[in-house]
Design a protein that fits this description.
Length: 307
Amino acid sequence: MKRRRFRSFAKINLGLEVVRRRDDGYHELKTLFAALSLHDIVGIEESGRGITIRSDHPDVPADETNLAYRAAEALQRIARTRGGLLITIEKRLAVGGGLGGGSSNAATVLRALDLIWDLRLGPAGLLEVARPLGADVPYFLIGGPALGLGRGDEIHPLPLKLPRRVLLVPGTGGVGTAAVFRRLRALGGPRRAPSRIDAFLRRLHGGPEDRPPSLRGLRNDLEPAALAEREELAEVARRVRRAGRASRAAMAAMSGSGSSFFLILENVEAERRASRALLADGLASVPCRFLSRRAYRSGFEISPDRA
Ligand code: C5P
C-alpha cells in the first residue's frame, strides 16, 4: 500500500465552563469547540511489523504513550489485522498548546484507518474507540462548530457560522491539562457564575441563522488556573487582549488549558492590525480560518498529486 496523507486539524475552545468535579476525578464541562484550518499532517502506510510512529518533532513520543499509537492499536483489534503500520506525524500544531494536537492525531488515525480498511464505522462507530483515548478525541471525529458536554466528549454539532478570520498565538507548551485542573481546585474549584454558553445557545437557537449570537462574553474558566500555573502566560494574555482592543476583535481568549491564545476578527484589515499590534508586543501569530463541518470532512485526505 502506498502512503496516504491526512490533515489533522487544530481546535480552539470559544468558551469553556467547568461545571463541577465528578466522582471519577474528571470535571463536567460545557464547551464550544471550533476547528481551524491549521493542521499537522499524518501519513499512514502498511509496512513492516507492529506500529511505528515517526515525527519531525522531538516532543512527540514514538511509543504507546502517543494517542495515535493507541488509536492504531485499537483499530487493528477491531479490523483483526496484524500487519505493521508506519505512521508519520509532521507537527505544525504547538505541542501542549491547548489546540488538541495529540487528540486530533489520534482521531485522524481512527478516521484514516476506517477509510483505508473500508471498515465503514464512521464517526458514530468510532466514538466508543475514541472516548477512552482522551476527552478531546471524540470532537475530532466530526469537527466544525460543536458543543461539548460531559468530560467534553459528548459532542453536539451546532449550526453556527463563524467569522472567517482567526489569529492564533501559539503557546510554547508546558502547561499540563491535569495540572491546570488541579490548580483550579486549589483556587476554589468551579465558579458559580451563570453560564454564558447557555445564554449563547438560547440566542443561537432562537435567532435568525444569518445573525449569529455575539461571541463577546464567552469565557474560559481554566484561564485563571493556567495563568497561576505559568506566570509568564499572564503577560501574554494582557498583550493578546490589548491587540484585541486595537483591532476590535470579536473575541480574545485562551484555548483549552493553554497555552495558546486566539483572536477572532471580522475582516482582513482587522486581522492585519491585530497581527501588527501583537508583533510590536513581541508575539508571533498565525492567521488561519474556521472550518465548517463540511470543509473539515472534505479537506481530510491530501490528494496524492499534492505530495
Ligand atoms: O482526557 P485527557 O487525557 O485529555 O485529560 C487529561 C487530564 O485532564 C485528566 O487526567 C484530568 O485530570 C483532566 N480533565 C478533567 N476533566 C475533563 C478533562 C480532563 O479533570 N473534562
